[in-house]
Amino acid sequence: MSKSQGFLSIAALASAVFVSLACQPNVVRSEQPSDPPIIEPTPRSNEPITIVAVGDIMMGSPFPNDSRMPPNDGKDLFTPFKDVLQSGDITFGNLEGPMTDGGVSAKCGTRPNCFAFRMPTRYGQYLKDAGFDVMGIANNHAADFGQEGRLSTIRTLDSLGIKHAGTLDPPGTTAYLEARGKRIAVVGFGHNHGMPSINDLAEARRLVADAKKHADIVIVSYHGGGEGTDHQHVVKGHDIFLGEDRGDLPAFTHAVIDAGADLVLGHGPHVMRGMELYKGHLIEYSLGNFCTYGWFQLAAETALTEVLEIKIGADGKFISGKINPGKQEGRGGPVPDSTGAAIAVLRNLSNSDFGANAPKIADDGTITPK
Predict the structure, then answer these.
(1) Predicted TM-score (pTM) above 0.85
(2) Which residue of 33, 152, 326, 367 could cross-link 321, Cys pair, CB 3.0 to 4.6 Å?
(3) Quick one: pLDDT band at residue 270, thresholds 50, 70, 90?
(4) What's the rounded Cα separation, in Å, for the pair 91 and 84?
(5) C-alpha angle with apex 137: 95 to 296, nearest 5 degrees?
């Protein structure tokens, strides 16, 4: 029931009481108004919600020069998938790097061949126009331009009404959104400083449990795992890459679901990884690259991408999903892939790594519980 419907119900009830009293001559009406009728609170919607999710987004960087910037100033990067991105009740992506218009890279200084990204703040509007509602900002490039780069990202997203999750800076780790009468929390984790750690399971449980107290549905986003084509499989135990502990991802994902998370979305390896169903909840271990222009070598598995649609019930359990396969060609930017290569890769990885706990993935990309 809407607020306006509630007001109408109260008015109608009051009118009926008045007419009833007026028709009874032996009733003495007090000059004081009676207590208002008790109105039951509006029940929360039991409708399922659809989350649309993609992996790493780095729309081009003018550091150290403009040679890696996209054509038409990046305005067309999301156009090929705009319809499906805008179809979600909640649309999520991982923002791989800060949005800032200047500064010196905290990790690279002036070294020209160092991997440091900074997207122009004006590119935030492209995220908004494409339909993104919330961005993960917990990743190993979030601080490429130091604390000012982090804060510039937050200011840019805030100015556009795009939520963000995964920083220790205010407003913090968890983003809250509304969708179909439900409150949705998105909690972000990574393996670097300045963000909640995937290696601190006790704190991860606490953050998720706290979010669950304030939301109907909790989504966990994490950045973790080794990178590249030889890191497509989920490691059993801690995933060590370049000397960094990038998480015991099965332990982490299961811990946050046990604490109350309803959906887990992974990113970081720059390749897609398989999917698992755990206690009725979907885990996508890596969404892969989605829109990574200019800096990345895109070939074979690193060029494949997906736009993942996930339908979950009011109880947070996975109902169904859809893989929209894509690829990046040339210097980057996603386009649909009619061969459906991403679907076959995800099915094979899921079955290989999770067996009976993998969801069923059909040739057309439809995902259902086995």
Answers:
(1) yes
(2) 367
(3) very high
(4) 9
(5) 35
For residue 25, the model assigns a pLDDT of 36
Residue 112 banded pLDDT, cuts 50, 70, 90 = low
Residue 40: which residues within 8 A CB-CB, separation 6 or more?
Answer: none
Residue 361 structure tokens: 């993935």
Tokens of 78: 């999301």
In the chain, domain spans: 1-43, 49-368
Measured from the Cβ of residue 257, the count of other Cβ atoms closer than 10 Å reads 22
Contact 266, 346 (CB under 8 A): no
Return all residues near 157 (Cβ < 8 A) that are at least 6 apart: 99, 124, 127, 135, 137, 163, 164
Give the residue from 273, 182, 174 showing the smallest Cα distance to 219. 174
| Phi-psi region at 14: left, alpha or beta (left = phi > 0; alpha = psi -120 to 50) | alpha
Q: What is the 3-state secondary structure (H, E, C) of 80-105?
A: HHHHHHCCCCEEEEEECCCECCCCCE
The 272-278 sheet, strands edge to edge? 174-179, 182-189, 217-223, 263-267, 281-287, 272-278
Nearest-angstrom CA–CA distance, 239 and 233: 10
- Give, in degrees to the nearest 5, the angle at Cα 68 between 109 and 108: 10
CB atoms within 10 A of CB 114: 13
pLDDT at 351 exceeding the cut of 50: yes
Q: Containing H/E element for 263?
A: strand 263-267
Please return the burial class of 191, using the count of CB atoms within 10 Å of its CB with bins 0-12, 13-18 and 19+.
Answer: buried
- Region 6-22: mean pLDDT is 38
DSSP per position, 172-207: -SEEEEEETTEEEEEEEEBSSTTS-BTT-HHHHHHH
For the domain 49-368, what is the CATH code?
3.60.21.10
Q: Which of 64, 15, 46 is nearest to 317 (CA)?
A: 46
Tell me how long the chain is.
Answer: 370
